[in-house]
Every structure is written in C-alpha cells, then in structure tokens.
Write a structure and sequence with these properties.
The chain is an all-alpha fold. Helices cover 57% and strands 0% of the residues. About 8% of the residues have low confidence.
C-alpha cells in the first residue's frame, strides 16, 4: 500500500469529526481505486481470465466486464449518437480455433 493511500485511509478514520476532509479523501481514494481496478482487470485478461472469472471477482455480469473493457480500450458507447445501436460479441474465443459467425 502506498503512503498516499495510507494517508487517505487515516483521514477516513476521523470522518465523524471532519466530514468534509473525509469526503475529499473518499473522492481521491475512489480515483486511485478505479485506476487499480483497471490495471488489475487488464492484467487478468492478459493472464487468460475469462469474462466470467472477472465478473465473479467483481460481482458483476460478464456483460458488465465487457463494458468495462471497452471503456478502458476507448471504444465504449458514447452518447453523441443515441440512435446508433451497437452489437458486442462477448463470447469467449473457440479454443479449437473454429470461427463463429
């Protein structure tokens, strides 16, 4: 754990006395945790974890994992054209190398 993270957690210990300080610490900690989650998610995929494995770890659906991965890749759905429907194939690759069309 980094010193910055430890300092933020210490600020949370005194949330009753200093709620505004705690809120600021929570915001900073959330940013740090989001970055850690992104790194761990990408690393898990690099190591061969399936969408289901990651979903189980995060307690979300495999579609939720797919959405997170797309967002990290910068290809997430944007609201500039809400009429554009996008179909996403979240199936695992066929280990036998057969194509699925």
């Amino acid at each position: 754990m980094t010193d910055t993270r430890r300092a933020l957690l210490r600020k949370l210990e005194h949330a009753d006395a200093f709620p505004l300080v705690a809120l600021q610490a929570l915001r900073e900690l959330r940013i740090d945790l989001d970055a850690m989650e992104a790194e761990a998610l990408l690393r898990a995929r690099e190591l061969g974890a399936s969408l289901e494995d990651i979903g189980d770890a995060l307690q979300i659906t495999r579609q939720g994992v797919s959405y997170k991965l797309k967002s990290l890749a910068g290809t997430g759905h944007h609201d500039d054209d809400p009429s554009e429907d996008e179909i996403v194939d979240v199936r695992e690759p066929d280990p036998r190398g057969a194509r699925r069309d």
